Amino acid sequence: MRTYQPDVLARHLDVVFCGINPALTAQADGYNFSSPTNRFWTAIHRAGFTDRQLAPSEERSLLDYGCGITAVVTRPTSGADEVSALEIRQSLAAFEARMRAVSPRVLAFLGKPAISVVLGTSAVDWGLQRDSVAGSAAWVLPNPSGRNRRFTLGALVAAYAELHDHLATNRSR
Fold first, then answer.
1. What is the pLDDT of residues 32-71, one digit of tens each?
2. Measured distance CA(135)–CA(99) in Å, rounded
3. What distance in Å separates the CA atoms of residue 56 and residue 150, rounded to the nearest whole number?
4. What separation in angstroms does the CA of 92 have from each of 73, 130, 139?
5. What pTM value is reported for the model?
6. SS (H, E, C) the chain
7. Domains in the chain, ordered, with CATH?
8. Is 104 left (phi over 0), alpha (psi -120 to 50) or beta?
């Protein structure tokens, strides 16, 4: 079994995909978005972030594509609904310090709950946010969890492709 390292980070990436917190499956097998029902790897591939679909065990290869992974809260749970707004607030200083240290162009939050706490407002729309987070542009994408059935795979891919297109069009920092 691989020791779980939640962050897949390097300095100056184009985008860091930011979950609320890791899943228990990630802690168990050592890889992010490793549940067979999670659609992250399919969505980022079909949206154009990778030239082939990576397996969770290849997560470090994301760095070669200018992408990274992190979570606001590092405590794994069986579902993001087990993380309270208080726990997110208590994790913010460490999260923001990690993000300032690596300085990605965009922090792409996977779902609205964490960014709502980070920005201090529930009025969060999908896509590019007016306010930055830890010195990086903030973008909100639908959560790829298999539990999130409000979004079909096609809708996920379309939302992720919008971010991919934004990054390609706006190459400078």
1. 999 999 999 999 999 999 999 999 999 999 999 999 999 9
2. 8
3. 23
4. 8, 19, 17
5. 0.93
6. CCCCCCCECCCCCCEEEEECCCEHHHHHHCCCCCCCCCCHHHHHHHCCCCCCCCCHHHHHHHHHHCEEEEECCCCCECCHHHCCHHHHHHHHHHHHHHHHHHCCCEEEEECHHHHHHHHCCCCCCCEECCCCECCEEEEEECCCCCCCCCCCHHHHHHHHHHHHHHHHHCCCC
7. 15-169 (3.40.470.10)
8. beta
Residue 99: closest CA among 121, 132, 52: 132
Residue 173's pLDDT band, with cuts at 50, 70 and 90, is low
Residue 171, token pair as written in the block: 């190459």
Count how many residues are written for the chain: 173
